[in-house]
Amino acid sequence: MEWIWRKLDAFAGAIVIAMAGIAASQGQTFIVQYIQRLGGHLDEATAQLLNVQTGLRYKLMSEAVRKDIEADAQIRVDQLQSAYDAITGANIFTRPFAFFGHAEPSIVAGTWGDFVPALPLDATTITYVIMGMILGFLFYEFIKLPVLAVTHGSHRRRFKRRL
């Protein structure tokens, strides 16, 4: 009977590890698609700022109103540029943290709505898959500890009682 439990444990561990690897690979793909969408938002915000600075429509406004609109447009460009630079400038290990630290909820929601799963075979994705598998293994072993403590603890108690 113990042989069956060992096999089920190995099978469950393999499933958790595989799912963690797949999730990590899709995380990298999601970040790439988010960066593309973020770049589009940045281009649009930059064009809007240029329009405010040079467009005839805005030149006809009072100086105070135009300066307020320009300041808001500049803030938006700066926010998007900061997020874009932080995420694209991060190395392979810090990119997920940079993403979570600088992600804009509305852009994340748009990316999620249009997300297309993929499995690119580049070095970054393979590294994320391996890291995900390692984290999945550690997660599975950590979750398994209380179960082992309960089941093995009861075997020890029964063994001591028989003596």
Please give a structural write-up.
By secondary structure, the protein is mainly α. The protein has one domain. The protein is 87% helix and 0% strand. The chain has six helices and no strands. Helix 1 runs antiparallel to helix 3, helix 1 packs across helix 5 and helix 1 runs antiparallel to helix 6. The chain is elongated.
SSE inventory with pairings:
Blueprint: H1 2-54, H2 56-59, H3 63-89, H4 95-102, H5 105-113, H6 123-162
Task: Provide key terms for this protein.
single chain; 163 residues; mainly alpha; elongated
Number of domains: 1
Structural class computed from helices and strand pairing:
mainly alpha
Q: Let me know the largest β-sheet.
A: none
Give the H and E element order: HHHHHH
- Total helices: the number is 6
Overall geometry: elongated
By DSSP, the count of extended strands is 0
Helix content: over 70%
Mean pLDDT, as a whole number? 88
End-to-end span in angstroms? 23 Å
Name the beta content range: under 5%
Radius of gyration: 26 Å
Low-confidence stretches: none
